[in-house]
Amino acid sequence: MRNKKYFGYKAIAGDIRSKIEEGIIPPGERIETEYALSQKYEVNRMTARHALSLLEEEGFVIRRQGSGTFVVDRSAAKSKLTRAVGFLENLPWAENYLTRMRVAEEICSARGYPFHLSATNYSLDKERALLLHYIENPIQGLLVVGTKTAQPSQNYVLFEKLISMGVKLVFLESYGKYLPGGVCVASDDRKGGRMAAEMLIKNGHRKIATIFSFEDIQSHMRYSGVLDAANEAGIEISERNTMWYSSETVMKMTDGKMRNIESAAEKFIVNKSKREIMEMLDECTAIISYTSLPPIVIASMLKESGKKIPQDISMICFDNLRAEYYNRNFLGGDDEARIAAFKWQNDADQNGIDNVYGAGIAINSFDHDVAAIGRIGAQKLMSMLDGKEEKSEFTEWMYKDRGSVASI
């Protein structure tokens, strides 16, 4: 009769892994053959082979042709890790992300760890290349902002490989995809989405449009929070009033060559035409956006149609990046544009607000405490490098009222 305790290759690998970690199977010792394992666990040889392959991927064993499979001396492998910390970021040139990175760098450098910044530019292929680099050139710790975290990815096994090599990992904002139960520092995205919807509902809005990214787990969680609040209030978030976009769309918007918001709008509208978006806005009284980038386009379209914010439509977004970011990406290089950008930014600074370029308005937002995320993430990583255990942690949202929500 089949031993029901062992139902697959992952369970078999887990049993062997535990024995290796506990020293029951010491470094250098030969692991039982595929045939012996299949007999022991009452499975076929293919299942036993998959279990050994998984252990090899994780760095616990090594296969030697003609000799068998042997336990790796992981303590020797750990001693080869370079004393340094890496930071995998999506868009390190954006101001919010620069703040997070600088805070983390200060903490790590103060502890004597050289700090290496790498950018994935929202590319899973680039993320994979960087992870393979760190597998070939391992360092002691990594702070990771995951790329396209709602999408399935082969990069998962590379993170597991790094951990098996003794590299300490802390994920920032990308909980839910990589290594469930692992250490991460993030804002509570579901709570944030709920808070945004509740803010609009409290002000009388019952027809709410939503704009979210389908690639990031943070976006999915925020959207789920919006639905939580809508369900509790008994209102519908209609599919026809929900727009999903990709990072490629945003990257096209920020190529540094566009001089006005209309050209950005042409790049942005991929899933819906301008007419469809305006119909969506005609039906709704408020918009919730995953980031502050889509409202730039929407604000321009509203301005063209003679509508005003918040008189005709209210807006709330997340992570309202500061004006300098948009100046760098949407303005051209001529003197007139630079002077206009300087005047606009100076006015915004004096008024203590973050304006949305081209629209003459500012958007209410729930913002990450990026400095806190960078600080806490780096502190947890330093603690883990000291041999201590750490747990995941949520940071609080910071709400900024800039007058883009009206009561109806």
Portion in beta strands: 15-25%
CATH superfamily of the largest domain, by name, is Response regulator
Task: Report the helical percentage.
Answer: 40-55%
How many separate helices?
16
- What is the highest CATH level, the class of the largest domain? Alpha Beta
How many β-strand runs? 16
Structural class: alpha/beta
Task: Describe this structure as you would to a colleague.
- This protein has 16 helices and 16 strands.
- With 408 residues, the chain is an alpha/beta fold.
- The strands form four sheets. Strands 4-3-5-6-7-15 form a six-stranded parallel beta sheet, sandwiched between helices. Strands 9-8-10-11-14-16 form a six-stranded mixed beta sheet, with helices on both faces.
- It starts with 8 loop residues before the first helix and ends in an 8-residue tail after the last strand.
What's the short story on this structure?
The chain has 408 residues and is of the alpha/beta class. The protein has helices at residues 9-21, 34-41, 45-57, 74-78, 95-110, 124-136, 155-164, 189-202, 217-233, 247-253, 261-268, 274-283, 293-305, 323-330, 335-351, 370-385, and strands at 61-64, 68-71, 82-89, 115-119, 139-144, 168-172, 184-187, 208-213, 242-245, 286-289, 314-318, 355-356, 361-362, 364-367, 393-395, 398-400. Helix 2 packs across helix 3 (45-57) and helix 5 (95-110) packs parallel to helix 16 (370-385).
List the helices and strands and how they pair.
Blueprint: H1 9-21, H2 34-41, H3 45-57, E1 61-64, E2 68-71, H4 74-78, E3 82-89, H5 95-110, E4 115-119, H6 124-136, E5 139-144, H7 155-164, E6 168-172, E7 184-187, H8 189-202, E8 208-213, H9 217-233, E9 242-245, H10 247-253, H11 261-268, H12 274-283, E10 286-289, H13 293-305, E11 314-318, H14 323-330, H15 335-351, E12 355-356, E13 361-362, E14 364-367, H16 370-385, E15 393-395, E16 398-400
Parallel strand pairs: 3-4, 3-5, 5-6, 6-7, 7-15, 8-9, 8-10, 10-11, 11-14
Antiparallel strand pairs: 1-2, 12-13, 14-16
